[in-house]
Amino acid sequence: MTESASHFITELTLATLSRAPVVREMFPEGASRGTWHIDLAGWGDVMIIAPASANTIAKIACGLADNALTALVLALRCPLLVAPAMDVDMYRHPATRRNLELLEERNVRIIPPEAGELASGLEGEGRLADLQVLLDAIGRAMDVEADLAGKSILVTAGPTYEDIDPVRYLGNRSTGKMGFALAAAAARRGARVTLITGPSSISTPPGVKRVDVRSAEEMFEAVKAAADGLDVAIMAAAVADFTPVEASPHKLKKSPDTKKTVTLQLRRTPDILSWLGKRKRPRVLVGFAVETKDMVDEARRKLREKNADLFVVNNPLEEGSAFAADTNKVTFVTEDEVKEFERQSKDRVADHILDFVARKLEKPENTGTWV
Ligand code: CTP
Predict the structure, then answer these.
(1) In this structure, which residue's CA is closest to atom 19 in ligand 1?
(2) Which of 20, 163, 238, 246 yields a CA-CA distance of 20 to 30 A from 263?
(3) Tens-digit pLDDT profile for residues 189-198
(4) Residues 350, 178: Cα–Cα separation, whole Å
């Protein structure tokens, strides 16, 4: 933390949120050695300066080492990422431009700021890049394996909303977290990713083409439009199985003679996964299921009926599983294998699914095209 940073937030805030010690001083009291920055420089796998001010960028471009941060940079052995954040005029200033070029020439990776409203009230480039963009850059700097390079992957995510009238709908509790984690991980691993999502407030992962839909029918149309030339489809959306027979064009009203109960007529929605399964050539199709009993039998039945390669099953009765959670406890069910995983983050679950996909794609019988 530089001196300037401490005017924006306190050391205590940073220590509390990161649950890690904060380094501020070049020569901290109580340090057993004066070379702590050399130790830290060798310890990290990657270093990111976010936000990086014009002043810090200028200093590291010149090789100055006049505070803890810049001294650490000079001794660094791992990749360095710099995410500038500053006023638009400072960012555009020829001195800053040149400093950033100098850093790039030295293999420092610059994560450009976004345009928008700035702290100064001005509009323009200078806002710190989105968190997901920073995380993605860190992943790339750490050489996450691009084992899905050149593959086309479709992911569905989120709930669907089935309209009853202009103000009401049938929905479910899916937030889209699992599908978005899959799309992000697949893009990180080099795939071309199309994410078709029902209503979700999660921001689009970097490098992912996002298509927003509302109902099961709209999701089906979007999947059909994206289906040509796919290598892999992962259906993580919680698609409504039923939709009102007809959405009322006007708000449904109650009147004094409305009965105590009303009946809503529903019809089946198209099963998108089955549609892909029927068209399937030698490619990889992954489905999700929520089961609270006879998990493996049910998943295998769906696997066969829908012609999928893997069903990822979760049980919402387990703690830290399924909807809205950041973690998931899943079981993989394939034609000849059942694999139960520990509870873990949805990001890790996504990587396990993609490991399965990558292995499957390597098989010679799966090298054809799915048209
Ligand atoms: N799915 C789909 N289109 C639908 C319904 C489901 O593509 N109209 C996909 C989901 O994205 C998920 C899988 O199919 O990958 C879920 O299969 P499904 O048999 O619908 O599971 P459940 O809804 O849990 O079925 P059931 O209530 O019969 O257990």
Answers:
(1) 302
(2) 238
(3) 889 999 999 9
(4) 7
